[in-house]
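Schema walk-through. Below, the input block comes first and the output block second. Nothing else is stored per chain. Lengths vary across the set, and this one has 105 residues.
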Amino acid sequence: MTRSESLAAYLRAQAWRRLDRVESNDDGRNARCALALLDTAAYAASLPDDDPLILMLDKAGCFGPLGCEEFDPGEAGTRLIRHWQGGEPHELLLALPNAITASAG
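--- output ---
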């Protein structure tokens, strides 16, 4: 599995997690988040592994210390992804390294 595919798989899993949530009066928040994550997953899957966004995520440690593990954004990155309400797909990918770095420092 490439890094792009691993990232896309992670985002799809998080989208399904949001779709499976049942909250009264969420006003569609979970559905909007899920759609935004699915959109970002489709975008991520189309990126080559040498794309600057993938390389930024690798540098932030999202693919393990050697860059060959499954995508894992850590606690701060997961928190950002789980609360993502939407925007352009690249905006989430750009925000991840900053969230991860800010939590480490």
